[in-house]
Amino acid sequence: MGVEHYAAHCAVCHGAPGVPKGDIARGLYPPPPDLAKAATLYAPAELFWIVEHGIKMTGMPAWSDHSDEELWATVAFLKKLPDMSDEDYAKLVMASMAHGDHHHNGGGHGDTTTQPNHTT
Predict the structure, then answer these.
(1) What is the CATH code of the structural domain delimited by 2-102?
(2) Where do the H-state alpha helices sit in 1-120?
């Protein structure tokens, strides 16, 4: 569930292993951090607060309309992100897409526009 949320909502600005930041990230100030590095600076509870409430005066939105379960899953994913290879991320995204329908029903979840740039 965490990788699904990250791929659908976070990777476009923050990038991911094998996925560059999207065009929208270039227009944001301050620039969105590489979360593989920045997430190591925060405790899980701090990351949860940031994801839930966003950061004022930045492009970081609040995801408070998502369940606590989904936000904690995203935090758990962020804590694993620093050690993740491009291939590991691609496998997780593909697996979440295959099983994503039981977590969400529409509403833009499971957006595949931030899939890794792999041809295999």
Answers:
(1) 1.10.760
(2) 2-5, 11-14, 23-26, 35-38, 44-53, 68-80, 86-99
Mean per-residue pLDDT, 100-116: 43
How do the domains of the chain map onto residue ranges? 2-102
Q: CA dist 75 to 78, 89, 118, Å?
A: 5, 15, 25
Q: How far apart are CA 35 and CA 30, in angstroms?
A: 14
In angstroms, how far is the first alpha carbon of the chain from the final one?
A: 23
Instruction: Give me the helix-helix angle, 68-80 and 44-53, nearest 10°.
Output: 130
Token pair 């529409």 is found at: 106
Q: Model pTM?
A: 0.79
